[in-house]
Design goal:
Elements (H helix, E strand, L loop, with lengths): L2 H9 L8 E2 L16 E10 L9 E11 L5 E4 L3 E4 L8 H7 L3 H4 L6 H10 L2 E4 L2 H11 L7 E4 L16 H9 L1 E2 L5 H13 L9 H10 L2 E6 L7 H6 L3 E3 L4 E6 L4 H12 L9 E5 L10
Parallel strand pairs: 1-8, 2-6, 6-7
Antiparallel strand pairs: 2-3, 3-4, 3-5, 9-11, 9-12, 10-11
Helix pairs in contact: 6-7
Length: 293
């Protein structure tokens, strides 16, 4: 009996789930002459640490791909990957996680011109943790600041696919029954594209379709300025987060929910004051996940 035959037998049983190594796929949906395809760039970075303001890139990976307006992914193009010498030793824990050593990056540098050309051809940049990758990349390569961004972790309602976590390896296992060698930039890019392309929810919408819909929306950020200290638990319970730089609580809401949020703040946080001091700022995918939002 071959391995595939044994795997098929296990798959047929309710007691087993077979997880297969993710293979490289060059084409998902077939191209058609009547479809206008767009190009996106899936990016990932490995860095010396988790501080977006100070830590440096040690590996950059990008995989261009095409998609249509319905969220079907078509051709997956050749990856682009560069090591970069951070100019200081890579911490031992980072070397252990990524397998990237000081010797591997010594003297290497990202090709800024090549990356700029990739960006010129892409209408959308996607990362699985865009709040991290975008900030790091904009600091190193400012051209990323002028692009629309989306996050495959935050812009897809993974609970609709039965997921209780948004970690990439877990989603790949749960939704696609696949595994990959994580913590290397291009491997994570390919895994993310596969995840966005494959499954469908109950409404036959792919993760990529959900991502596009959420990336196109505007976001209203509501700032609970000068809220009383004893309202902290109310704000936290409603999903507000603390912004230490501005010393205030905030929450992001879609435009359709803005009036309801204002009414809640006025009644629950500001005791019905007509001149409640909350503020609202609005941004789009041009600034979402950056330090400007």
């Amino acid at each position: 009996m071959t391995l595939d035959e044994m795997a098929a037998q296990l798959d047929a049983s309710a007691d087993y789930r077979v997880v297969r190594r993710l293979s490289q796929i060059g084409q998902y949906a077939p191209d058609r002459s009547d479809e206008q395809l767009r190009r996106a760039l899936l990016v990932d970075v490995e860095t010396t640490g988790l501080d977006t303001a100070r830590d440096a890139i040690i590996e950059f990976g990008a995989v261009p791909f095409t998609y249509d307006s319905a969220g079907r992914i078509h051709a997956v193009e050749e990856p682009v990957v560069y090591f970069e010498d951070p100019g200081r030793p890579i911490p031992a824990e980072v070397q252990a996680i990524t397998g990237i050593t000081n010797e591997m990056v010594a003297g290497h540098r990202i090709d800024d011109v090549r990356v700029s050309a990739l960006l010129d051809d892409a209408g959308l940049v996607i990362a699985h943790n865009a709040s991290f990758d975008r900030r790091v990349l904009e600091r190193r390569l400012p051209a990323f600041a002028g692009k629309h961004w989306a996050c495959s972790r935050e812009d897809v309602p993974w609970d609709l696919f039965g997921a209780k976590s948004t970690k990439l390896d877990y989603l790949l296992y749960l939704v696609c029954h696949a595994f990959h060698e994580g913590h290397r930039a291009v491997d994570d890019c390919r895994a993310t594209i596969h995840l966005l392309a494959q499954p469908r929810d109950a409404e036959s919408r792919s993760p990529m379709a959900h991502l596009l819909g959420n990336a196109r929306r505007k976001t209203c950020r509501v700032w609970a300025r000068r809220s009383a200290f004893d309202t902290k638990e109310l704000l936290k319970g409603r999903g507000y987060r603390w912004n230490d730089a501005q010393k205030t609580w905030y929450v992001d809401r879609p435009p359709a929910d803005l009036e309801a949020e204002k009414a809640w703040l006025t009644a629950e946080i500001y005791a019905g004051k007509a001149s409640a001091p909350f503020e609202v700022t609005t941004f789009t995918s041009l600034d979402r996940y950056s330090d400007r939002a």
